[in-house]
User: Fold this.
Amino acid sequence: MPTEARDFAADAGEPAGAGDRAGVAVRGLGHAYGELTTIDGLDLEAPAHRVLGIVGPSGCGKSTLLELIAGLQAPTAGVIEVGGRAGAAERLAGCAFMPQRDLLLPWLPALDNAALALRNRGVRRAEARREAGQLFERFGLGGFERSAPAELSGGMRQRVAFLRTLVAGKPVLALDEPFASLDAITRAEMQAWLAGALAADPRTVILVTHDVEEALYLSDQVVVLSSRPARVVAELSAPGARNADRDAAVTDRGFIAARERAMAALHEGSR
Amino acid sequence: MKRWLLPALLLAALIGAWQIAASTGAIADALNLEDFLVPSPSEIASSLWENRSLLAENAWVTLQEILLGFAIAVVAGIAFAVAMHLSTTVRLASYPLVVASQTIPIVVLAPILVTWFGFGLGPKLAVIALICFFPITVTTLDGLRSVDPEATKMMRSLDASRLQILWRVEAPTALPYTFSGARIAAVFAPIAAVFGEWVGANSGLGRQILLDNGQLETARLFAAAFVLSAIALGLFGLLALAERRIVTWR
Assistant:
């Protein structure tokens, strides 16, 4: 058992884990499935409490990259450090992975889904529920604690899934296209909502998405990856966008210029 | 319309047709048999009533065999499926054997079991469990393996141990599969019990059926078969009820 995970267990009373500051550093990363090289010599840096957006063409290895960072897979070359520690177990302990679909467990009410990480660490059910329940109101889920996932809307399910990731109390959040399954309006709402959630409870976030606008709005820095094997073709940012009103931010001239550059880089990289 | 209405109507029509065909002697004539060899439903019903204590006595014996054998099959079936799921080595080594075990005709195996274990409860339980564990194992293993790999990654990232993933994600996913397997097993169990009793028993519905057949007591034979069928249907119904109460998320 990695010591870091034990530490989280010890202060499980603090759901936020905001005290933990850990950045992510990727150096010379390589990964291959057998003969197929998906990632070759990739360098990335996400300082503590910053949001790093990763966009790239479909099948470029974004999801693989995220799983590598989160300690769910082992790289074939290079080093990945989470909070300065490179072992897969340490990365697993330092990162909370949120998959593309919400994957809420249908046999558990929303509250127990959100409290999964605490239960996994041996926190008693009543205590885990109390702790996860504190966040429901703030996340616009008040009154839905006892609801089955099937009774929730897509946006609410995604919020519960994000809550579940947050309650794990890890310094780094690895989000794999968190809003890809939502309709455009709900997605925009959820992006603004996530920006608010991160302002209240800052974490280091690795955000994988195919939505350039989403990446630019939510991230402090965005890297554009090429198609396989993935390498960085552009680094961009839209400073301050996340802290502004979303509608205003995405129509800002600087934001639009950055989006154009990102789209151009994306096209160039997928050739 | 109520769900049971159509099957009830069909059943009533079949019984009615049988009643008419048997009581007018149409079937016996067509088969060139004595009338008493083709009992009508009403004769079976009266035989059921007249022999109620004999049938109840034997039904109790067979019911015990079925319930115990079935329980063993459920426990062993699930345990085996979990072992095969957790260990690739166990799965690769034993899966062919599990399938092979089902290809041995139970009529061949049952006499040997009686030779080894005698006329008591043992061989019957062995036969029932051997037949019933297979559908439970196969469906449960399928269920355990049907879990979304992304869900497993999510759980690992939320600090779940292998056993926690099994308990919190894989087991609930597999549960409806297990119930399907158990329902199939519930229908096989009485047949297995009859086989077990045929090769050597002092009591039970299977033995009763064998005796009645020898003595041309066809009405009582049908009555015993009716009781046996009722046991299977009861077990099936109980499982369906349990599934509805437990698997509330489907």
